[in-house]
Amino acid sequence: MKVATDIPGLDKLMDGGFEEGSINLISGKTGTGKSVFCLQFLFNGVTSFGEKGLYVTTEETEAYLKKQALQFGWDFSELEKKGLVKIVAFEPFDIDTLTTKITEQVNLTGAKRVAIDSVSMFELYISEAYRIRKSIFKFLQKLKEMDITSIVTAEIPEDSNALSRFGVIEFLVDAVIVLQYMTIAKYKRSLMIRKMRTSKHSMNIHPFEITSDGIHVMDV
Ligand SMILES: Nc1ncnc2c1ncn2[C@@H]1O[C@H](COP(=O)(O)OP(=O)(O)OP(=O)(O)O)[C@@H](O)[C@H]1O
Ligand SMILES: [Mg+2]
Fold first, then answer.
1. Which of 26, 30, 32, 36 for mutating ligand 1's site (highest number of atoms within 8 Å of CB)?
2. 210: CA distance to ligand 2 center in Å?
3. From ligand 1's centre to the CA of 210, what distance in Å?
4. Fewest beta carbons within 10 Å, which of 32, 65, 145, 151?
5. Please, what's the b/e burial string for 79-93 (b: 16 or more CB within 10 A of its CB; e: otherwise)?
């Protein structure tokens, strides 16, 4: 089964959407649209498919994200009143605690779609590479055990060609979408599906726009 994002132009690039129950990494440098992607995925989940959503932020406040969403006409406060979405802000200091809190919230809300924005920070609290790998593995394992389809975001440092800060998480997830921003290109924003384990997917670089109603992947 596929979980469509309903982000215009995107699902057809990945054979209909994300795999149900999968964990999908959205990575990109700062300002590339990772948080907008998360908001749009969850908003569409509720409004197009009647699936409840949970947004876990480790970087912004709940109020800030609601304000950002409203700029695109996505009224999260309204949906939250109806129990259809929830935004929770958690400090990323300890992955085990974060995992427990996310599990609690998934059970409490009945969310089918979960966005975790971002996982970059908690890598910073662990010094040894093998422990980063182990903790992230355990964290993703827990997510897998839940009846949800999730997206997690990771920030790519400005000077890096990797897919995440420590180059670990991309190996452990089912799919990776990379968002890019290039000031000199004709189309400034583009995305590529870097991997998707279980589906045929586009191998091309696709320009996209962020307009007043969100992300649109362009047909070019
Ligand atoms: N209402 C809007 N209309 C058009 N574009 C917008 C609008 N709001 C935000 N944007 C664009 O989206 C970008 C922000 O995207 P977003 O916050 O999702 O990035 P991000 O990848 O999450 O960044 P960070 O790493 O800083 O969290 C802005 O830099 C801006 O160019
Ligand atoms: Mg963000």
1. 36
2. 14
3. 8
4. 145
5. bbeeebbbbbeeebe
| Residue 143 contacts residue 150 (beta carbons within 8 Å) | yes
In whole angstroms, what is the distance from residue 11 CA to residue 100 CA?
31
Q: In the chain, what are the domain boundaries?
A: 52-173
Name all residues whose Cβ lies below 6 A of ligand 1. Answer: 28, 30-36, 71-72, 155, 210-212
Q: Can you name the CATH fold of 52-173?
A: Rossmann fold (3.40.50)
**Predicted local distance difference test score (pLDDT) of residue 96:** 86
pLDDT band for 4, please (50, 70, 90 cuts).
very high
- Round to the nearest angstrom and report the end-to-end CA distance of the chain: 28
Q: What is the pLDDT of residues 157-183, one digit of tens each?
A: 999 888 888 788 899 999 999 999 998
Closest-CA residue, ligand 1 atom 2, reads 212
Would you call 69 helix, strand, or coil by DSSP? helix
Distance CA 18, CA 152 (A): 13
